[in-house]
């Protein structure tokens, strides 16, 4: 019988607590973090723990769920649509540099359901993440 992993269980494990705080510290320093998990490791619970840490440090976060996207294999379009609700702003952002120089970006963006069964999506999203990092950190 498997018991569900709760936030309290995770917070009590010293290695998990240290890991989550290290991720939070890294994000506070403005360094991009790519955290890949599987459902086995209770992704929702890990995210909830991370969200708590981000809130403690007044970091804004948003989420993109690829399962809810009409065309998840076009990450730039998904990103632009998720971040810019205003149609004019959406149309004015044509490049990643435009997006990154815009006001109102979250400090952290959770991309959910980037799963191996969507191999083409994974490659495209990893390319975007790489380009994001290169653009930000040069």
Order of strands, main sheet, comes to 1-2
The H/E string reads HHHEHHHEH
The rough form would be described as globular
Q: How many β-strand runs?
A: 2
What integer is the average pLDDT?
A: 77
Percent strand equals 5-15%
Tell me the radius of gyration: 16 Å
Extract low-pLDDT stretches: none
Number of helices: 7
Largest sheet: 2 strands, parallel
N-to-C CA distance: 49 Å
Characterization of this structure:
The chain has helices at residues 7-12, 14-28, 43-56, 75-83, 87-92, 96-100, 119-137; strands at residues 61-65, 108-112. The mean pLDDT is 77. It is globular and about 45 Å long. Helix 2 (14-28) crosses helix 3. The protein has a two-stranded parallel ribbon. By secondary structure, it is mainly alpha-helical.
